[in-house]
TrEMBL record:
The organism of origin for this protein: Carnegiea gigantea
Catalytic reaction list: N(6)-[(R)-lipoyl]-L-lysyl-[protein] + 3-methyl-2-oxobutanoate + H(+) = N(6)-[(R)-S(8)-2-methylpropanoyldihydrolipoyl]-L-lysyl-[protein] + CO2
Gene3D superfamilies: 3.40.50.970
Name of a matching Pfam family: E1_dh
UniProt xrefs under SUPFAM superfamilies: Thiamin diphosphate-binding fold (THDP-binding) (SSF52518)
Name this protein carries in UniProt: 3-methyl-2-oxobutanoate dehydrogenase (2-methylpropanoyl-transferring)
Chief place of localization: mitochondrion
Limits of the Dehydrogenase E1 component domain: 141-437
EC numbers: 1.2.4.4
Quaternary context: Heterotetramer of alpha and beta chains.
Length: 479
């Protein structure tokens, strides 16, 4: 500050944003810095505290009241205004035409795809070849996800677990994105990305353990079913409130940037309903301003529980929200696993090499109910569900493509499904037979040393279970 104030009086006056004090006391260009400093400190202009990140002196000049220009400077001042405003965020040109930006674009943002609905390559221009090994693994993983969803959903309907959510119709977004990422990339999921964790090596037994909340569950039975998490797989634990993971993900990406880690990024998943949450906008702006390596993937599946996208926003989907924050964005066919793979791979490269965020909107459809607590036929037509399930099925499309390449056939498909089915059934049976977490775990992991209140609550619970053992059969063994 002291060094700044020792500059010439000409420089100070030139860069001064005139406050009321300036207008009342500075009348000529001969005013000195010394005379200014002799006045009270609380009248110092805010221009002295402008951050060094922006060169805003020219913008400050144009905010000076025209009354302080002499007659011979009027013409130069008019020319300056006509050139535009060198604003901190970038130069803005002036116009004499008053025109409001339209809320709607005449043309919608196109959707990138590689495969058509019949599994045929639509264009070779930007398509990167995928190996047979990768393609068959992707298809096998989508089958596994579908079979697991089917059996665990039925387990809930039978009263064996308390809750479940499927990824029916969204398998391509799950597996296509997972295949394009590195295991070092950090995942912040919502609650419809089990396929990403499956791809990374989370076993069917581990999925079942979490849903049944047994002793082998990493969350010790404290979370609702499908709230998976695995530190070993760089997969943060799922939270029920939507969009809360987005600012957290940006913070994690910022830590990668601070550590100068140039071989990984953060990937944050969300649904279209997240865009109505404040955390979505805070996270997007935070990521853009801090220029962090993160890929936002929005599964726009048409419905946020019972709210259609037509009631969710008036914009052209989610993809247009990115540029408003200064984020490079793209829209992809979320039912085309090959297109999702290509886009996420490219987005990851941008995030890492350019150290900046990318937004991907994947257009897909939630074929299943929102959860086992929902009946979607009450708010959307069955014909719509059937159309997307049959005509737009992501597994069927991908299977047609690999069959055309000679990499898959009916016999192999049937064999894979039967094998996976037996593995899922076995995992469920093992998880169901396993004991529940110890009663003592209910009071751990909160404080280093249990407080008196916690100790009293534990004693009270133990006494209650001892009095009513038939009502708490799962916990009597741990007393």
């Amino acid at each position: 500050m002291a060094l700044w104030l020792r500059r010439s009086s000409k420089h100070i006056i030139k860069n001064l944003m005139y406050s009321n004090y300036c207008r009342n006391n500075i009348t000529t260009k001969t005013t000195t810095a010394a005379s200014f400093l002799n006045e009270k400190a609380d009248v110092v202009s805010p221009v002295f505290f402008v951050g060094r990140r922006f060169e805003s002196t020219k913008a400050a000049e144009m905010r000076i009241d025209p009354q302080f220009y002499s007659s011979e400077e009027d013409e130069d001042h008019d020319d300056l205004l006509n050139q535009g405003m060198d604003f901190p965020g970038g130069k803005v040109m002036f116009t004499s035409e008053m025109s409001f930006i339209s809320e709607h674009s005449d043309k919608r943002i196109p959707c990138y795809r590689v495969l058509n609905d019949h599994g045929e390559i639509v264009s070779d221009e930007s398509y990167q070849q995928v190996s047979r090994e990768l393609a068959t693994r992707m298809h096998n993983s989508m089958i596994t996800l579908q079979v697991m969803d089917t059996f665990l959903y039925e387990a809930q309907r039978q009263g064996r677990i308390s809750f479940y959510m499927t990824s029916n119709g969204e398998e391509a977004v799950n597996i296509g994105s997972a295949a394009a990422l590195s295991y070092d990339d950090i995942i912040f999921p919502q609650y419809r990305e089990p396929g990403v964790l499956l791809w990374r090596g989370f076993t069917l037994q581990e999925f079942a353990n979490q849903c049944f909340g047994n002793r082998a569950d990493y969350g010790k039975g404290r979370q609702m079913p499908i709230h998976y998490g695995s530190k070993r797989h760089n997969f943060f634990t799922i939270s029920s409130p939507i969009a809360t993971q987005l600012p957290q993900a940006v913070g994690a990406a910022y830590s990668l940037k601070m550590d100068n880690k140039k071989d990984a990024c953060v990937v944050a998943f969300m649904g279209d309903g997240c865009t109505s949450e404040g955390d979505f906008h805070a996270g997007m702006n935070f990521a853009a301003v801090m220029e962090v390596p993160i890929v936002f993937i929005c599964r726009n599946n048409g419905w946020a529980i019972s709210t259609p996208v037509s009631d969710q926003f008036r914009s052209d989907g989610v993809v247009v929200k990115g540029p408003a924050y200064g984020i490079q964005s793209i829209r992809v066919d979320g039912n085309d696993a090959l297109a999702v793979y290509q886009v996420i791979r490219a987005a990851r490269n941008i995030a890492i090499s350019e150290q900046k965020p990318v937004l991907v909107e994947a257009l897909t459809y939630r074929v299943g109910h929102h959860s086992t607590s929902d009946d979607s036929t009450k708010y959307r037509p069955i014909d719509e569900i059937t159309h997307w399930k049959m005509a737009k099925n992501p597994l069927a499309r991908f299977r047609q493509w690999i069959e055309k390449n000679g990499w898959w056939d009916e016999e192999r498909d049937s064999e894979a499904r039967n094998t996976i089915k037996q593995e899922v059934i076995q995992a469920i049976q093992v998880a169901e037979r396993m004991e529940k977490p110890s009663l003592l775990e209910l009071f751990t992991d909160v404080y280093d040393k249990p407080t008196n209140d916690l100790q009293e609550q534990e004693t009270s619970l133990r006494e209650t279970i001892q009095r009513h053992p038939k009502d708490y059969p799962a916990f009597t063994y741990s007393l």
